[in-house]
Amino acid sequence: MPVRPYTNGHLASLVRGGQEFFSELEKLIDSALVSLHLQTYIFDDDATGRHIIKALGRAADRGVKVFLVVDGFGSLALGRDFPERMPSLGIQARFFSAVTPLNIYKAGRRLHHKVCVADERCALVGGINIADKYRGTDLEKPWLDFAIKVQGPVCVSIARVCERIYTRRFVRIPEPTVVGNVSLPGKVKVRMSRNDWMRGKNEISSAYKTMIRTSRSEIIKAASYFIPTRRLLNKLRRAAEQGRHVYLNLGRQSDVPFMRGAMHYLYDKLLRQSIRIFEYHEAILHAKVCVIDRKWVSVGSHNLNHLSEFISVEMNVDVLDERFGVKVADELFSIIHSRCEEVKAEDFIRNYPLTRRVYNRFAYTIISYSMRILDVFSARGRGGLGPK
Predict the structure, then answer these.
(1) Pairwise CA distance, residues 224 & 17, whole Å
(2) How many other C-beta atoms lie within 10 A of the C-beta of residue 85?
(3) Are 113 and 41 in contact (CB under 8 A)?
(4) Cα–Cα distance for residue pair 135/15, rounded to 1 Å
(5) Quick check: 184 pLDDT over 70?
(6) Which tens digit of pLDDT belongs to each residue from 113-127?
(7) Among 141, 124, 311, which Cα is nearest to 225's?
């Protein structure tokens, strides 16, 4: 699957999760003058969710056209009448693929975007949902996650994708031509990449495979729900075999049952190839960030697993810029050195007896087959024909 070309003329910055992200999100909403798209997988009816709804309402009061799309499964707690309640605030809202007995065959196809774009000029794209656990509370640290703030021509393309999802018009139309006067003084090269297997988009997965295969010295990946496909796992192992330094920043905790055991099943294969694994221990790690050779960075909603590659609707932003790559690599290494513990091969083998290995294999089987069952449901919804 070919990926999009990069365009120049952007400003880009990495945004950490927690209060930093939500402050940036509110600033972006408050800056909108004409249009605003917000799309997310989880939107909870908690203090954080209600605060963002108020911000969207303020934008609508200023005359901004506000469009909100939340996933029908991830945001089920909002209640089925959520879209009907929003117009009173001036917000045009809908569920993506609301879950009902009549469309259970779409159970696997979810909107996994976490994106907000204002006036086609500035966007936040990352892995951060709208909920207290992502912002943090007095009693709980925020989940570790990131987004990228980007200004420049790519925001037009991001807005067009959001429009198509909101209007349900998935017809293939040419991407907008970059107009010179939307470029900024910055020289950062940026592209948007998408995964939507049902619509024939597999750009994020293709970019990952290409960049890992052509990497020269170093791969740094912060990953949640790390159950890569066999092909991608082999590419990581081959990169390590060929002398590249591969660092995986994974989570010690998980919000998904069996996920930790399933990931541990892969540790033995990875550690034997001298891939270094570091577990974040302060909270749940939810990040989806990759840096290759300190010049290519990808940030977004895409996880390295079967769901993100073949089922969910995903969006990432890729940056090709050495200065930006060094900054993001330094940020990830700072977390690795100060807030993680390395999993050593000898300790891993000694501390995981046969009974634990059997459990890990069982957990990996459960997680893997669950993803494939969801893929079967989604395939029925698209006639079982694969990409379209």
Answers:
(1) 14
(2) 13
(3) yes
(4) 13
(5) no
(6) 999 999 999 999 999
(7) 311
